[in-house]
């Protein structure tokens, strides 16, 4: 509660100029009174919500009157309108929408209101209150309402269906009338049907394909069936009976899609197929470039013997960041320093000047005996606050560059932004543990306020201890030098206590928490990891030797205790090497075992050879964050993170330090 109270003082009083002891006492009394009022208002708000849900309207009205100045009163009004507003009450609804522009309250209430108008076929009101683009249902009904009310010429209105049609997913039933009118007007073409089939096949809802197939002329039906088969099994492109040549461009499109998937599933079959295609399968320049890029990446990731051949087929200007990485990895695996040094000058400017390529250019120079030139290149890279900047500084055995520019915002500006209704609502929603709604409010603010106000929002979020929002906002704004806000010592007592207990570097634990969730205690990943340090339930069960609930993993202190213990266990099982343990925390220990080379390899080269881009970038980020935390916390007595990394060698026999 103390953090909320501090934030509330900041919200309600702003920056108070104290000119005497009497003023201090009065200010503190006012603060305490405001806090007491807010606590009472929260309780009344919750009671009013219950009364609304139970339709006890007399009790609700009494409670609502007592909450006139409470920031979340508008949420009660929105709830009331969603439940009870009728089309004849449009003045009340419109007044509410106008009072809360560009906020979740506005778009959630508008969506409900439009649904009610749709249900009653109130065309004029719908068109007046519709705010494009809206949901697909609302887009379709807006077209239908224009037709029903004669708001323009029919064909230009129906052409609005074109953009709605082009989706790989099913369209809602509300679109059926306008789709039928669109078709009857002759606006649906075979090309548009084919384009939607391609969208459905290539990542969309493939069960749509038989439905769409019927809309094609009979001679084209085989194309839709072939697309559907290739979606289910890309090796079907090897069956030449589907490649009759009747529609060569369409067949080529299917083959290009299938090869792009088959190379990942069965590279040897894909390589045989692409060399034995019928002559009428002629890839466009764009299709062939995309295939070469895809083959180069897939074969490299799988360590296939043909990887180098496909990488060599790409001109320096045809590389993506991904293919360039794998070209680098291929040469680093071979120790082909001449090739590394020769490629860098031919890269496009953005890539050539990046810290990554400049660092490896210097490494190649060093390996080829050009020590002094290498040092000059590293000297430039070492000015960066990044993984490669820190590596370069370690190669030079010089102090790190950690530029720190404190966020300076005028107190009056901060106070003004803190009083914005969305800010006030977000604070109260957090106080009620309604984090999803709080984030919606905050994100709506970030989308619509000026850049200067966004900077103020980042500072306010940081002051509240809402670290993930502060970090996200500063990253979005490119405020990378606001180190104190971007790398807070969040949950420091817990990180220190449990890191000490696990006998690991607390800066390492902080770096992992920063990378995993940006210190968001209710974080949940698509992979099913939970909490501050993003633990899988299975991992938590293993560490704790009992079933751990999701609810427990959302407890920050408990999550840190398990996360630090797991880091320590991984480090112990991997030869007491924290670099390998960092990779294992992301990818799993058995994958890291598979990635250990038979012959000793320098750690910086090993990191670039990690097959998974996610894990590779994860390791780089955690190492950089760990270094930043060590530097920020002035722990000069500890060994430099990258000073340990540069001489380290990795092998299947065990890491050598």
TrEMBL record:
Domain Transglycosylase SLT: 500-597
Residues spanning the membrane: none
Keyword Signal: yes
Residue ranges of domain Lytic transglycosylase superhelical linker in the record: 417-482
Single Gene Ontology MF annotation: hydrolase activity, hydrolyzing O-glycosyl compounds
CDD domains with a match to the protein in the record: Slt70-like
Residue runs in coiled coils: none
InterPro entries: Lysozyme-like_dom_sf, Lytic_TGlycoase_superhlx_L_sf, Lytic_TGlycosylase_superhlx_L, Lytic_TGlycosylase_superhlx_U, Transglycosylase_SLT_dom_1
Family: Belongs to the transglycosylase Slt family.
This protein's name: Murein transglycosylase
Lineage: Bacteria, Pseudomonadati, Pseudomonadota, Gammaproteobacteria, Alteromonadales
């Amino acid at each position: 509660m103390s953090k909320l109270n501090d934030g509330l003082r900041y919200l309600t009083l702003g920056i108070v100029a104290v000119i005497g002891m009497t003023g201090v006492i009065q200010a503190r009394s006012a603060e305490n009174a405001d806090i007491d009022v807010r606590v009472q208002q929260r309780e009344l708000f919750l009671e009013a919500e219950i009364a609304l849900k139970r339709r006890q309207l007399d009790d609700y009205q009494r409670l609502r009157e007592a909450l006139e100045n409470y920031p979340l009163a508008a949420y009660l009004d929105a709830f009331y309108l969603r439940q009870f507003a009728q089309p004849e009450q449009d003045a009340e609804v419109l007044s509410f929408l106008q009072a809360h522009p560009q906020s979740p309250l506005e778009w959630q209430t508008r969506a409900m209101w439009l649904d009610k108008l749709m249900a009653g076929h109130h065309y004029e009101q719908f068109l007046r209150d519709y705010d494009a683009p809206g949901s697909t249902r609302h887009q379709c009904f807006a077209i239908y309402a224009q037709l029903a009310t004669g708001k323009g010429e029919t064909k230009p209105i129906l052409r609005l269906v074109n953009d709605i049609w082009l989706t790989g997913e099913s369209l809602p039933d509300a679109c059926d009338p306008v789709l039928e009118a669109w078709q009857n007007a002759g606006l649906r073409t075979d090309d548009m049907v084919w384009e939607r089939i391609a969208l459905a096949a290539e990542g969309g809802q493939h069960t749509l394909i038989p439905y769409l197939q019927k809309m094609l002329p009979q001679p084209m039906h085989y194309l839709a069936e072939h697309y559907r088969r290739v979606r289910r099994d890309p090796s079907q492109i090897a069956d030449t009976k589907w490649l009759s040549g009747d529609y060569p461009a369409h067949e080529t499109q299917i083959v290009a899609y299938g090869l792009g998937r088959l190379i990942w599933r069965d590279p040897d079959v894909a390589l045989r197929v692409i060399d034995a295609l019928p002559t009428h399968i002629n890839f466009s320049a764009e299709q062939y470039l995309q295939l070469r890029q895809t083959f180069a990446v897939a074969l490299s990731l799988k360590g296939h013997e043909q990887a180098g051949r496909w990488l060599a087929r790409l001109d320096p200007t045809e590389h993506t960041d991904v293919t360039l990485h794998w070209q680098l990895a291929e040469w680093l695996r071979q120790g082909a320093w001449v090739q590394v040094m020769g490629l860098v000058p031919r890269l496009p400017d953005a890539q050539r000047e990046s810290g990554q390529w400049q660092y490896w250019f210097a490494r190649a120079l060093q390996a080829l005996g050009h020590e002094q030139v290498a040092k000059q290149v590293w000297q430039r890279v070492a000015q960066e606050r990044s993984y490669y900047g820190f590596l370069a500084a370690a190669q030079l055995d010089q102090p790190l560059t950690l530029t720190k520019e404190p966020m300076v915002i005028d107190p009056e500006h901060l106070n003004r932004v803190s009083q914005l209704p969305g800010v006030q609502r977000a604070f109260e929603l957090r106080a009620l543990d309604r984090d999803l709604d709080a984030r919606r409010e905050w994100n709506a603010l970030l989308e619509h306020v000026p850049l200067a106000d966004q900077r103020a929002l980042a500072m306010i979020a940081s002051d509240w201890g809402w670290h993930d929002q502060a970090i996200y906002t500063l990253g979005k704004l490119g405020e990378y030098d606001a180190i104190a806000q971007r790398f807070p010592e969040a949950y420091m007592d817990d990180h220190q206590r449990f890191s000490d207990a696990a006998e690991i570097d607390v800066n390492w634990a902080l770096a992992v928490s920063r990378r995993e969730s940006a210190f968001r205690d209710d974080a949940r990943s698509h992979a099913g990891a939970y909490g501050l340090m993003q633990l899988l339930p299975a991992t938590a069960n293993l560490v704790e030797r009992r079933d751990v609930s999701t609810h427990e993993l959302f407890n920050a202190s408990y999550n840190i205790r398990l996360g630090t213990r797991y880091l320590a266990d991984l480090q112990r099982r991997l030869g007491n090497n924290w670099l390998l343990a960092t990779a294992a925390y992301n990818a799993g220990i058995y994958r890291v075992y598979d990635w250990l080379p038979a012959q000793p390899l320098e750690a910086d080269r090993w990191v670039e050879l990690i097959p998974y881009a996610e894990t590779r970038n994860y390791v780089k980020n955690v190492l950089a964050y760990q270094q930043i935390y060590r530097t920020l916390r002035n722990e000069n007595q500890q060994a430099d993170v990258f000073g340990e990394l540069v001489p380290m060698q990795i092998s299947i026999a065990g890491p050598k330090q």
